[in-house]
Each structure stands twice: as structure tokens, then as C-alpha cells.
Write a structure and sequence with these properties.
Strand content: 25-35%
Strand order of the largest sheet: 8-5-7-6-9
Number of helices: 7
């Protein structure tokens, strides 16, 4: 097991295939709430001892990704600081404009990706888009940066791709091959048409 402290609120836990079996985190296995609580309490206690990661049990988010070797990587983020910040600055935040976040979509083939990129080029010229490729499963990932999560003008993308949760972006940028960064909707359709 390897535990890496990303920052004060986030860690990455890498487990080997044997450790995945030991913790009973095998892919496809459904665990009830008590099993998950037991597993994560153990992992987070080790993280606290090894790298000083502190957390509040009710305020963590964890995402598990399979590794090529049969192991997995678990990204854990503590939301305690963010919750406190929002409580302390509630009035200030209500008067500020909330910054738009990104959206990520997974495509099974390049043809559908190009159709979407071509449409985006006509819909939103100021959009920032990046495309990554996963060699393991052959999927393409489109990242729309700084857009509202429920933007109606981008809803058509769901006809061609599956929506992926935003915290997955860190994993995509670290493990997948970049095809085009920041202006994919302008460059890629020209290459494939």
C-alpha cells in the first residue's frame, strides 16, 4: 500500500491486487454501508498514521479507480475545510458569482466525438475543450472547461457520450494520453473532415 498526500485535504491510496482482495474491494462486488465504513476507517487510519491526513467521517468523498495490474487507486478528499469556509462566508458567497466548473464526457468512438466537437465549434466559440484517449479501454474523453454543470446548450452531447463526474479529471490528465488540449473543438474536426 502506498499513501500519497496530494494536499492538506486530499490523498491518493494505491493498493496492489493482493491488497484489493484483502480489503474485499474487488470490481463488481457490492458492499453494504457497514462494510464500506469498516474498510475506509481502516484505510483512513493508516493514512492518518503515515501522512498525517485528518478528516471528519461525515465529510469525505472517495473515488476508486482500477489499475492495470489488478490493484486500484483511491482518491480521498476531505470536505471539512470547504464546509467551514462556506458557513463562515455565507453572506460573501451569496453576493459573488459562483465560478463555472468543467464537464467530462466519455465517447466509445472517434466519429461521435468529432460530430460533437464540430457542433460545439458552431455553438460556442469561446469554449475551452480538451480531448484525452484511454489506451486501456479505447474510450475518448472530452473535457469542457469552465462551463455550467447544467448548461442546456451542451445537453445534446448526452446523445453521443456518457457524462463523467468532474473529480475524474485529475485521473484523466495523469493516466490518459492527451490528443488536443484547450481548443479541441476548433482543431480536431478540421483534421477529420
Amino acid at each position: 500500500m502506498e499513501i500519497v498526500k496530494i494536499n492538506e485535504k486530499s490523498i491518493k491510496i494505491s493498493l496492489s491486487s493482493d491488497e484489493v482482495k484483502e480489503y474485499d474491494l474487488c470490481e463488481g462486488k457490492e458492499l453494504d454501508a457497514e462494510e464500506m465504513k469498516r474498510i475506509f476507517s481502516s484505510l483512513l487510519q493508516k493514512a492518518k498514521n503515515e501522512v498525517g491526513f485528518t478528516y471528519a467521517k461525515e465529510n469525505i468523498v472517495a473515488e476508486i479507480f482500477s489499475s492495470k495490474d489488478g490493484g486500484c487507486e483511491i482518491f480521498v478528499s476531505c470536505l471539512l475545510g470547504e464546509v467551514k469556509m462556506y458557513k463562515d462566508k455565507r453572506e460573501e458567497l451569496s453576493s459573488q458569482k459562483i465560478k463555472a466548473q468543467g464537464q467530462i464526457y466519455a465517447f466509445d468512438n472517434i466519429e461521435d466525438l468529432i460530430k460533437v466537437l464540430d457542433a460545439l465549434r458552431n455553438i460556442d466559440k469561446s469554449l475551452s475543450t480538451s480531448v484525452y484517449y484511454n489506451n486501456k479501454n479505447g474510450k475518448y474523453f472530452l473535457v469542457l472547461e469552465n462551463v455550467l454543470r447544467k448548461s442546456i446548450k451542451h445537453a445534446f452531447i448526452l446523445e453521443f457520450a456518457k457524462y463523467v463526474k468532474s473529480p475524474f479529471l485529475q485521473y484523466i490528465t495523469e493516466y490518459f494520453s492527451p490528443i488536443c488540449i484547450s481548443d479541441a473543438h476548433e482543431k480536431l474536426p478540421k483534421l477529420y473532415n
